[in-house]
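Schema walk-through. Below, the input block comes first and the output block second. Nothing else is stored per chain. Lengths vary across the set, and this one has 513 residues.
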Amino acid sequence: MSYTNNFDSKTSNLLQLTEIVTPKKLSKLDILDPNGTTKANQLYRLLTEGKITTEEGLMDALFDKGPHQRGNFNRMKRQLEEKLVNTLFLSDNSSNKPANIQEAHDKCFKNLAVVKLLLSKHARNSAIIIAERTFQLAEKYKFTFALLSLAKHLRTHYASMIGNSAKFSYYDKKIKHYKEVFVAELEVEGYYSDLVRHLSTSNIQTTNYHNKASYYIHAMKKIIDDYSSYRFKLYGYNVISICYEIIKDSNKNIAICNEAISFFKNKKHAKSNLALRIFYFRKIPSLMMLKRFQEAEQNAKNSLELDKIGHHNWYRTQKLRLHIALHTLNYQKTYDIYLETIQQPNFHLQYPNIQESWKISEAYIYYLFLRKKVKNVSNKEILNFRINRFLNEIPTFSKDKQGLNISILILHTLLLLHQKQYDKIIDRTEALRTYTHRYLRQDETFRSNCFIKMLMQLPKANFHRAAVERKTKELREKLSSVGIIQNQSAEVEIVPYEMLWEFVLESLDNKIH
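--- output ---
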């Protein structure tokens, strides 16, 4: 328009934006109305209320049964998804001066998307104004990817459109610097991905991965101080911490987590509740391994304070709190933590492996309830517990031959012993023997191996307490010779085997059965 020269740059920028965001486009803006009457809005309300928990229930609430019900429902889900995406982009509450790193992150990447969109609409002047302003914010918080993307557009602009050599050189140098940082971030993220891929394949950490863990520690220690970007530090400290877990150096793991916590607390550009929560969480197993349970509990509380109740990570921290309670023999607190967790409204929406993990904890709490270690139980899942139903409800871990299936196998035997079903235990002896031969030969499962072999002595001693104690004396000493959690995850040894063995002996008498 010919009159744009009458305005300053900011007003000209606004005018250019109005040419893109026209009244016609605004009238067609497809965003979510929580009070709307459309099917998409109704589906949104049903999902947020959480009262209907099945796909079929949602379909029946919105559409009449018939051959087109599924098709109509699927089309409605796509419409809601589009509305939510549009509304998400508009509902960013971050201010011009973000209060924390998350707000700054959201603002930077939202603006980056706007810059790219404006450039595609040939609104270059507006795009460059937003790009320069966003570059300053991104540099303050060291968002490397955003900095590279913005600097690339700005370098091109000042080279080919404006011919400003000084600004071209400025952004060219920025690109060279942040390219190096970005490559370092990619490298450390690759280390991290390799480690978590390994850990996700089993609940047990294999010794043949120790060499790689040692290599990663050496590689990271050489460069951890070279870059200060949030992403580099977050992944870098995580890599070192995971590696110390793998090689079972608890003291060094605690030290590196403390170093990470100090960094993310004291660096203004990196102060992050997410990062702090991660490293409070990562310290807990190592503190437990060293029997520093009070510190472990405090770190769990620190982690929970930084997380939203009912969030995925909240459930993970709750599980560690449950293990702390079990390993300190605070059985009533174990039940309280379990109850608080499974009563969360979104518990049924968690991943199957998380729900199954809590099902296993539930089964052990039931056993503790039978042993009169947990009292005042009101939860119907505990009171109505059935072992066969439990075994059918945990398909994921039944395939995990070196992980939580060990806990399931042991618990089943303990319940049979409590019920004095000696014949069924005898029938399972061969399965126990086969299991230890096939799956429990590695060092990581030494304690579990010892304990299962102790259980295998029950039939050989005719379930006679004195004979059992005599036949298991050497195994019992071997069990105690290896510290708890030293060779395996706390997730597997849910209740310390020493305490479970006391329960086994309490279930026996000095009679031959």
